[in-house]
Amino acid sequence: MIHLGQVNTLEILRESEHGAYLIDNEDNQVLLPNRYVPQEFKIYDKLDVFVYLDNDERPVATTDMPYIMKDGFALLRCNQVTEYGAFLDWGLVKELFCPFQEQAFKMKPGGWYLVHCYLDEKSERLVASSKTMRFLDNRELTVAEFDEVDLIVSHPSDIGMNVIVNKKHIGLIYKDQIFKDLSIGDRLKGIVKKVRLVIN
């Protein structure tokens, strides 16, 4: 199966005037446009490609890797705002769309925003949301005390800095545990000192 918003390892099946067609182990095909086709390759060579929808809403592959992938978080720059929503630079030719209803604060061109990327089930498009908290859950924790974790700085609070833990949970670094300047979107490693379960 070819997965939108993720890196797929696919085989080169055949050439065409528009590029090379890649295939997975279930015979699903996707086009790799000419600009991304390696200068030298053999049929059935394997390539790691990112797959998303092009401007015509068709799946397309690229060897460029975006700044954010499906289910991930990243700090992205807003390139433009239209009547439909904001369009963010995520490192690919087609910008990442963030609808107005998914904006925690009204986005402005040139601004930087911490967003989550997800696959919208209705439109089957990859979209962004700056309402990051709704994608985090502390009811079923997957970390324990003294675990090493991946952190993304989310937003400041009166007692420290809120962080996203392993792309799943929300955590807090207390002020007396911060030993360098931190900015929203920074990525760092951390050690879990205390676990607090949230019960609904």
Automatic annotation (TrEMBL):
It comes from the Bacteria. Residues 4-63 form the Conserved virulence factor B first S1 domain. InterPro entries: CvfB_fam, CvfB_S1_st, NA-bd_OB-fold. This is S1 RNA binding domain. It comes from Algibacter lectus.
